[in-house]
Design goal:
mainly beta, 205 residues, 11 strands, five-stranded antiparallel beta sheet
């Protein structure tokens, strides 16, 4: 693995909120996995964009009608009730984790993950959402956790090999230095109902 990849994995995520860099052309990694599935709902990972300091994960939500929930309401940050949204989290090989519940890493070290919600759009039957993850995951298996209590989707766990993400850092094109003061700090959101005794309840305390 190249020196650039090694340095990226050691870049501190603590003290800054990571968002999609405007000064980089990312490397695309064709990740594909079904993260959760019921008879009428499927949540899947469909690709990742790797930047020098982190990864953008693309999540698809499919809902078969008729349904009491819509695909757009799964991860929307501006829906009628944040308490009904889908829960999304990542867990690094060392056990450190972060979720879309409070946008904070559970272990505040330079290598602990920080997860923030990105962009999204769609309709009742299908929607797509992105998550920004920093730093570049360390070598090993990264677990992705999903649950959607309001839609009857229980907690599900899928492991992803991080090596394709780490290797992709060498293909990132940095166009010019990052501007200072360009890091966005998200506003804390309403805490949703969590599955009792589950992973999300455990890692968010």
């Amino acid at each position: 693995m190249g020196k650039e990849t090694e340095n990226a994995t050691q870049s501190p995520a603590v003290g800054r909120w990571w968002s999609r860099p405007t000064n980089e052309v990312p490397a695309v990694v064709p990740l594909q996995a079904v993260l959760a599935r019921t008879d009428h709902i499927v949540i899947s990972l469909n690709g990742a964009r790797v930047y020098s300091q982190g990864v953008e994960l693309c999540v698809h939500v499919h809902v078969q009608a008729p349904s009491p929930v819509t695909a757009m309401s799964a991860l929307s940050v501006c829906g009628p009730s944040m308490r009904d949204r889908c829960l999304f989290g990542v867990e690094f090989p060392d056990g450190s984790a972060s979720t879309n519940i409070d946008n904070q890493a559970t272990r505040r070290t330079a290598t602990a993950p920080v997860l923030t919600s990105g962009s999204g759009g769609g309709g009742p039957a299908h929607s797509t959402f992105t998550f920004q993850l920093a730093p570049i995951p360390p070598a090993g298996q990264m677990a992705i956790w999903v649950a959607w209590p309001a839609a009857g989707v229980p907690e599900s766990r899928v492991e992803i090999d991080t090596e394709p993400l780490r290797q992709a850092v060498d293909r990132v094109q940095v166009l010019w230095p990052e501007q200072t003061g360009s890091v966005w700090t998200p506003t804390p959101s309403e805490r949703p109902e969590l599955p009792a005794g589950g992973w999300f309840a455990k890692v968010t305390g």
